[in-house]
């Protein structure tokens, strides 16, 4: 793709949780589309690998730490003077267990990362984008932010909440020219999903093959997983001017798990 024709040419984009999985795929896609990409997270090694691949930057930050989040966004403003795209992607899968057996410490940890961390980042992104009069924010929700699943109450709670935050924030910052949308991926092939399947198999007394067949592939219209790169394509749509009149929306990328 010619850089002059690239949809994110000269845009500054931040991807939290950008070291692996969906975050890495989005960072790479945005870089290909011409953006200057900053990936943020807690693991220096994985972030450095993405920064090397994308020609971008890696910044260490813990989204649950209010001061750390403020420092992250302040550093981006100091280096670049603006922030055009923010992908609010940092998160965890949370406890996988019946609610009657819920480990409240694990519940709290999931809420802290997926919801409080997301909000801390959104506050700082708004403080940059609203005064500059432009920007695209992409909240990473989930198919489980649209309908609940057994054994996943904590994760579903956080992802449902992100849909509400997306709709509320879109109305709030829209007059300033800032757009806010949510992506709702289904089951994504990769390391994180492998761990979820293993934990579900143990919790439900089934084989991993049964868990995959019954809950992920056979129930999808396309009868397959979703690749991280397919979610990245949807993120690029929300980040670019191709979606210039779209805000407060949620998009499923789930291979048809209706």
In short:
By secondary structure, the protein is of the alpha/beta class. 48% of the residues lie in helices and 14% in strands.
Descriptive account of the structure:
The chain is α/β, with parallel strands linked by helices. It has a single domain, classed as Rossmann fold (3-Layer(aba) Sandwich), CATH 3.40.50.720. Helix content is 48%, strand content 14%. The protein has 8 helices and 7 strands. The protein has a 7-stranded parallel β-sheet with strand order 3-2-1-4-5-6-7, sandwiched between helices. Strand 1 (12-16), helix 1 and strand 2 (36-41) form a beta-alpha-beta unit. Helix 1 (21-32) crosses helix 8, helix 3 (66-80) runs parallel beside helix 4 and helix 6 packs across helix 7 (208-217). The chain starts with 11 loop residues before the first strand and ends in a 5-residue tail after the last strand.
């Amino acid at each position: 793709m010619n850089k002059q024709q690239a949809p994110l040419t000269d845009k500054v984009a931040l991807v939290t949780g950008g070291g692996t999985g969906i975050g890495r795929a989005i960072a790479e896609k945005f870089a290909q589309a011409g953006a200057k990409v900053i990936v943020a997270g807690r693991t220096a090694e994985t972030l450095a690998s993405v920064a090397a691949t994308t020609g971008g930057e890696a910044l260490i930050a813990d989204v649950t730490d209010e001061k750390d989040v403020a420092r992250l966004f302040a550093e981006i403003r100091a280096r670049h003077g603006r922030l055009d795209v923010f992908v609010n992607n940092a998160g965890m899968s949370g406890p996988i267990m019946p609610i009657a057996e819920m480990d409240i410490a694990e519940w709290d940890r999931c809420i802290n990362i997926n919801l409080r961390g997301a909000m801390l980042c959104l506050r700082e992104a708004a403080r940059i984008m609203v005064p500059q009069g432009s920007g695209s924010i992409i909240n990473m929700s989930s198919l489980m932010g649209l309908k609940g699943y057994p054994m996943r109450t904590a994760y579903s709670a956080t992802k449902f909440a992100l849909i509400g935050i997306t709709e509320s924030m879109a109305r709030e910052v829209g007059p300033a020219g800032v757009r806010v949308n949510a992506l709702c991926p289904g089951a994504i092939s990769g390391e994180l999903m492998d761990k979820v399947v293993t934990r579900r198999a143990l919790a439900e007394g089934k084989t991993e093959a049964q868990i995959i067949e019954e809950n992920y592939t056979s129930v999808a219209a396309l009868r397959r997983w979703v690749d991280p790169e397919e979610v990245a394509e949807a993120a690029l749509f929300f980040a670019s001017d191709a979606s210039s009149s779209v805000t407060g929306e949620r998009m499923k990328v789930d291979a048809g798990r209706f």
